[in-house]
Amino acid sequence: MPHAFDEMSSADGSVRPAYETLQRWLASVPQEVLDHRRKEAEFIFRRIGITFAVYGEQNSQERLIPFDMVPRIITKDEWATLSKGLEQRVKALNMYIRDVYTKREVLKAGVVPENLVYQNPAFRPEMNGQRVPHDLYVHIAGIDIVRTDPDTFYVLEDNARTPSGVSYMLENREIMLRLFPELFSLHKVAPVDKYGDDLLATLRSLAPHGGHEPNVAILTPGIYNSAYYEHSFLADKLGVDLVEGRDLFVKDAVVYMRTTEGPKRVDVIYRRLDDDFLDPLMFRRDSQLGVPGLMSAYHAGNVTLTNAVGTGVADDKAVYSYMPDIIRFYLGEEPLLPNVPTWRCREPDHLKYVLEHLPELVVKEVHGSGGYGMLVGPASDKAQIEKFRAKLVADPANFIAQPTLALSTCPTMVEKGVAPRHVDLRPFILSGSDKVRIVPGGLTRVAMKEGSLVVNSSQGGGTKDTWVLDA
Questions:
Q1: How many helices and strands, by DSSP H and E, does the chain display?
Q2: Which segments constitute the Circularly permuted ATP-grasp type domain (predicted)?
């Protein structure tokens, strides 16, 4: 496996400037003090209920996502580069989705293969020719970023449906401010607490009609959803109603919420519900989670759904591999944030290379998530590789492959002190009708297990606070 870039320490052992103050602080604080504060952080997280569930596990129960107390530090200049690239990418994603459901110029030009769109299970023919408010589809994006050297950030994945994790970003900062005020006093850290205000301003800007204060609601599948804590957290943060499908109804192509004071019109729905379950009259008839007639109100232009229906056509791992060409096609610009090199197993020559180099590669399902359904070649034995080879040969279009990246490492609190662990970053990009908003930082996910490259919480990964230095 390639040598990982250490974000804190240079190859000669010297500490990089951004981390010098943190390193001195860590050296000055007794280990027992850090251990005590770690236990205190765990107690606080349990008390306020920040847990998640893993679907498909027998005897599944709510888990606490490990929280690491050592912040990840990004310089002001690094963030400036990142934020420009993120804005460019999300702009291209919006243009691509709009085109796919309208003129399809990108398909006519041969930039993206037609079957990658029409055979995509996330493609929604019900959206063909339908205008959405303000021609925006991806209002809330979570773009996963990795780093392998001092100079380059790579996009690993685009999350354009219902990206999660922002509640952890905000709660991590709250915990750090509470437990380590002295460390904050030594740094000038850009705040993230305005995310709630930014999100509410974005959602209100997307309302389909003017003339009155837009009414925003967050639609949740309910308390048994693995991300329910985040749904509840965001509703409280924004000061809006958290609703389930049974709380809403449609009359004359307008959505209303049932309240003790009578029906109340809803203009914008931040839905944390998959397309399939939104409207039993158009999608899954057995859905008890959605709102009958919701799509009629949507098509009539009387409600904004955030994110738009059908955005999944842009965020699978096969489409991801075309994003550099998509950016060039729509914007006439070179991508500011490069992709990780990717082999599309649907293409015979790519498949041949992947099959010949399986022990060296990471192979992922096109529609996979959460770290499931993937092969990490260097960490797998021969039996695992051969079993995966058979799956790959049987259905090559379902997989892409990438080199085994040595994700950058950050100092992390482990049982025996502080040690490097691999990390990624999920910034959140808000696209409103007025402007794009990005709070400095995002959710840093960390592989808590030594040597592991899998940062997903469902696979034992944790999270840490991300500090963008303001100076």
A1: 14, 22
A2: 71-447
